[in-house]
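Section 5: illustrative case.
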């Protein structure tokens, strides 16, 4: 009886213990539902790592990229807003595009064409330019474009033919424009006087001085041109041509030498050509004194074909310089009486 009672007691305690455990589990689930929490599945909770080596790393899956260090949430609207640095770079790029240098060149006659007047225009290094075909004598300066680079080519129009001339920026036949030129002495001939004309009045050769002349001739482009030509030694220029000198060098003085009181004039021919000078007056101030100066010309005795002059202060003689001579007061009165018939 006593053993049976003990068994009943043990059985009762076991039942109470089981009920307590089940009730605790049911009460825990009920409480979790009341406060909005779910129970933790212990089977899914990783166990504590107790090994001696470092725990294995847990890498994120490709579908779940790690959050950025800045902690900012990425959004499609955020990616469209440029940062200050990006805005500055875009602005600099726009400025560079605006300042980009573009060379251009266009040619009105489209190519190298010697028979047609043309002009080129464009820009280079951001500077505009314009050039036209021109003539330099009978040489044509032809402007053209080498891609976007302006260039020029010089062409002697005579290479196109002996009757071709450069006129108004092109090589043309002179007969096409009715242009002609004639020279009576046949060109550059300094020993014959000639007349040159291309339709206008004739241009006649003439002496520039005693030893050189201006010689007219027809240029290759049928224009009247001229050249200064020096006569050879022992030649002198007379009447538009160089002639053999058939007279001696000389010097003559109308007042026959140095004569301060009479006005004289020297004339003659020397190696530099003919010369002529009259005695004349000049004045200047020196030491607060007005001086009348006479320049007295005369022939040099040592070289009959040369001349010289002497400077004379008429005031030192109590006279004044009048009309190329030193005169006293009476001389001046007589001079004007004779001048006006008094």
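Designed sequence:
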């Amino acid at each position: 009886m006593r053993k049976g009672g003990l068994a009943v007691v043990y059985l009762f305690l076991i039942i109470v213990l089981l009920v307590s455990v089940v009730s605790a589990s049911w009460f825990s689930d009920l409480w979790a539902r009341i406060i909005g929490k779910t129970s933790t599945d212990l089977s899914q909770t990783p166990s504590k790592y107790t090994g001696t080596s470092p725990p294995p790393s847990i890498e994120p899956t490709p579908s779940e990229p790690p959050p950025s260090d800045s902690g900012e949430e990425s959004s499609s609207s955020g990616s469209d807003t440029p940062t200050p640095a990006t805005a500055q770079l875009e602005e600099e790029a726009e400025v560079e595009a605006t300042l980009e240098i573009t060379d251009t060149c266009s040619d009105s006659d489209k190519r190298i064409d010697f028979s047609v007047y043309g002009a080129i225009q464009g820009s280079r290094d951001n500077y505009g330019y314009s050039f036209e075909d021109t003539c330099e004598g009978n040489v044509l300066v032809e402007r053209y474009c080498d891609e976007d680079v302006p260039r020029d080519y010089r062409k002697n129009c005579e290479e196109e033919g002996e009757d071709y001339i450069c006129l108004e920026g092109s090589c043309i036949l002179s007969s096409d424009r009715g242009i002609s030129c004639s020279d009576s002495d046949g060109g550059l001939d300094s020993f014959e006087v000639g007349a040159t004309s291309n339709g206008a009045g004739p241009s006649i050769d003439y002496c520039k001085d005693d030893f050189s002349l201006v010689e007219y001739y027809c240029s290759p482009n049928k224009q009247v041109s001229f050249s200064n030509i020096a006569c050879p030694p022992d030649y002198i220029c007379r009447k538009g041509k160089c002639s053999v000198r058939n007279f001696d060098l000389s010097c003559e003085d109308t007042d026959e030498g140095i004569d301060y009181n009479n006005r004289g004039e020297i004339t003659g021919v020397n190696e530099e050509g003919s010369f002529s000078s009259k005695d004349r007056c000049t004045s200047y101030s020196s030491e607060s004194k007005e001086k009348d100066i006479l320049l007295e010309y005369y022939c040099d005795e040592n070289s009959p074909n040369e001349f010289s002059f002497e400077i004379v202060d008429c005031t030192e003689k109590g006279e004044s310089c009048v009309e190329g001579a030193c005169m006293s007061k009476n001389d001046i009165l007589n001079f004007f009486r004779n001048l006006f018939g008094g």
